[in-house]
Structure formats: structure tokens, C-alpha cells
Design brief:
single chain, alpha/beta, six-stranded parallel sheet, two-stranded antiparallel ribbon, 49% helix, globular, binds fe (ii) ion
């Protein structure tokens, strides 16, 4: 039985297809925009897709174009671009890129509307810390054209790094959800295989952590299972990765998986990845492949003691045949993830990602403070983390 739940999954308008970008300018969300802020990072900003977006928005408008949005998203850049609103009067934000660019757009909209410094809006383990409940300006409409599998286009969260404090924090506000998402499979084609495959593990992590989240519910389970199967179909055939059909599957699945984050959140795996990004400078997408098998096994071993339900749902999503006790299935799920990781040929250990053993204590400190642990299905203690990171090292 599905049980009781309340859900707002996939609330954005989503347009999918190879020519969707060309119709952006006439979409109702942008039809009255005279000066959209158009964002991209270095690589995407130099590409053909961004040129098309800028060209279509330039007709009858004066877009403010930024081509050097940093990755990860940075609080100083957010505040600088938010301050520009009061000089240049942006009336919409169009973000073309991965999670960092999309998160930058969300944070700019939040600071323009609510004021204050961006970190004053951080959501911590203790809950949200809104600097102000009042609103000094309207929330600008956000249009997202994702070029990676971060899923940021489909959720109301943003991850921001404070370069001065060497820390990362999250923003969580329903108004951060992009009103329009444009999915064009060609947007993925410019990425190196390694980045795309790492990003695929990120999307798969959103599915698995959604299934075992303490906030999981039946509709989210169904969405996570479907998305995970699409992602596994690509990881099982990595040689075909760049074919349009495969890219389309990845884009659809990552948007479905990204929407889960706003509703059922994530867990231990993401807490560790956030720490690796903040403290060790590892890219979020790259961190996923090395951490996911071990974080998932840790959680599923604990869940196996409570009963087979969550373990069985993850097994079904990853096409791991149900056989033996839940504990055995938990181990075979980790082996399945290991096999997909080996097939993808991405860095499989923390040391391969450039993490030094001397950094692990600090990674544990950061992980234990991460709000993603609020919805992790198992309590996590320092010795557990030490053992997990040693296995992943
Ligand atoms: Fe993620």
C-alpha cells in the first residue's frame, strides 16, 4: 500500500527536445523580460548551446551576459551579481550549466529578494536560519538549462561555498525552484566522458539516498526506482554513453532524481561528498563514484537489521536479484555499484581523487556537521566514518 504522503515532485515546467532552447524568448516566463541575467561557466560559456541561448534572448532585449561563473558556486560571486540587480535591473535569470551555475542563479535570486549576506540564509543541521522573513524585491523568475546531471534544475536547494571561510552551506527555499527547465540532450554532449560518468553516479546517489531517506514515501520511491533503472541502463553500457538516446535517458533520469532532493533529501553519501568538495577541493561529480558503494553498504547493513523493505527497494532499482538474507543483498548491492564503477573507468578511490590520508580527520569533522545526516536512515558516529573512509581510500 502506498501509505500517507504529501508530494510536490516535479513542480517546474519542463520542456524537452533538441530545439527547445530556440523557443525560450517567446516563453511566457521570459516574454516580458527586457534585461535577463544570463549565466554560464567558462566551458559552457564558450560553447554553441550558450551562443544559441544568448542569440535568442538578444532579440528585442538587452541581456546581461556572464560567462565566468565559478565551480563550485561561490558566495562572493553571488553577492556581487546580486548587487548588480540594483544597477542594471535584471528581470529574470537564465542559467546554462551544471549545478554550480544553477545554484549561483538560485542564490542570486534569494539575496536580491530577501537581502543580507548569502550565508545568513544557510540551512544548517539545526534547521533554516533565515536572516529575514521580509522581502525587499520580487523573486526573479529562474530558467534552467542543465548541462550536467546535478538535478539542480528540479529542486529548491542550492549549495554554496564561502571561499574565505573554506566552508560550504546549503540554501533551501521553495522560491529557489526554477520555473522553467529546458532539457536538450545536446547540452550533455560537450562534456568529457569521465565528468559525465561521475555525474551519472551523482544522479544515482540521489535515487538511492532518496529510497533510504527517513522522509521517503511511495511516490518518491517509484520515481527513484524508474530514474535509477534508466541510469543503470547507461552505466551497464558505457561504450554507448555519447549516443543521443543514452544522453536523453541520462537527462530525464537526472531531472527526476534531482526533484527527489527537495522532498526526501539525501544522506550520508552526500554529507561525505560535500566534505570532500569543501575541504579537499574534489569535484562533486567525481567524488560520487568513490564514495557511493561504501556509504550505501554502511546504511543498508544497518537497515537490513530492521527488515528487508528498504534493502529490497534499492535492490530492485539496481536490478540486483533478491536472494538470501537482507544483509547478503546489501553486500551484493555494494558489489553491483563496484562493478558499474569499474565499468565506467572513473576514479574508484579517494586517493585516486587526490585526497591525502592526513585530510581524513577533517573530512570526518565536516561530514558530522552536514545537515544531510538529518535524513540518513542510520546514526553515524566518528568510528563508523573512519572505517568507511579507510575502505574508500
Ligand atoms: Fe548530489
Amino acid at each position: 500500500m502506498p501509505g500517507h504522503f504529501r508530494s510536490h515532485l516535479l513542480r517546474s515546467e519542463i520542456i524537452s527536445g533538441g530545439t527547445a532552447v530556440d523557443g525560450l524568448a517567446s516563453h511566457p516566463l521570459l516574454a516580458r523580460s527586457a534585461r535577463p541575467l544570463v549565466l554560464a561557466g567558462h566551458t559552457v560559456g564558450a560553447g554553441a548551446l550558450f551562443t544559441r541561448v544568448c542569440a535568442t534572448l538578444a532579440v528585442g532585449r538587452e541581456p546581461v551576459v556572464v560567462r565566468d561563473v565559478p565551480s563550485p558556486a561561490r558566495s562572493d560571486v553571488v553577492e556581487q551579481l546580486a548587487a548588480g540587480y540594483f544597477v542594471r535591473s535584471y528581470d529574470a535569470i537564465v542559467a546554462v550549466g551544471g549545478g554550480s551555475t544553477l545554484d549561483t542563479a538560485k542564490a542570486i535570486a534569494l539575496v536580491i529578494a530577501r537581502g543580507g549576506r548569502v550565508e545568513e540564509h544557510a540551512h544548517t543541521r539545526a534547521g533554516p536560519q533565515f536572516a529575514s522573513a521580509s522581502q525587499r524585491a520580487p523573486f526573479l523568475p529562474i530558467v534552467a538549462v542543465p548541462t550536467t546531471l546535478s538535478g539542480s534544475e528540479a529542486n529548491a536547494n542550492a549549495s554554496i561555498r564561502d571561499p574565505a571561510m573554506l566552508r560550504r552551506f546549503s540554501l533551501v527555499d521553495p522560491a529557489l525552484l526554477p520555473g522553467l527547465v529546458v532539457l536538450d540532450p545536446a547540452a550533455l554532449a560537450s562534456h568529457r566522458r569521465e565528468i559525465l560518468l561521475g555525474s551519472t553516479f551523482n544522479a544515482l546517489a540521489h535515487c538511492i539516498e532518496g529510497i533510504y531517506s527517513t522522509r521517503h514515501h511511495a511516490l518518491a520511491d517509484a520515481q527513484a526506482e524508474t530514474a535509477a533503472r534508466l541510469l543503470c541502463s547507461v552505466l551497464d553500457d558505457p561504450a554507448s554513453l555519447m549516443q543521443p538516446d543514452m544522453l536523453g535517458r541520462l537527462q530525464l533520469a537526472s531531472t527526476m532524481a534531482g526533484a527527489l532532493i527537495s522532498e526526501v533529501y539525501v544522506g550520508l553519501h552526500h554529507a561525505i561528498c560535500h566534505a570532500l568538495v569543501s575541504h579537499c577541493g574534489v569535484q562533486h561529480a567525481a567524488a560520487n563514484g568513490a564514495v557511493l558503494p561504501w556509504a550505501v553498504e554502511f546504511n543498508l547493513r544497518t537497515l537490513a537489521h530492521a527488515g528487508p523493505d528498504r534493502v529490497a527497494t534499492v535492490a530492485r532499482a539496481l536490478d540486483v536479484p533478491p536472494r538470501g538474507a537482507a544483509m547478503d543483498t546489501a553486500i551484493r548491492i555494494r558489489e553491483r555499484l563496484d562493478a558499474m564503477q569499474r565499468g565506467a573507468g572513473i576514479p574508484a578511490t579517494l586517493s585516486a581523487l587526490g585526497v591525502a590520508r592526513a585530510q581524513l580527520d577533517a573530512v570526518i569533522d565536516y561530514t558530522l556537521q552536514d545537515r544531510a545526516l538529518n535524513t540518513n536512515p542510520a546514526p553515524v558516529q566518528r568510528p563508523d566514518l573512519g572505517a568507511l573512509l579507510t575502505r574508500a581510500f
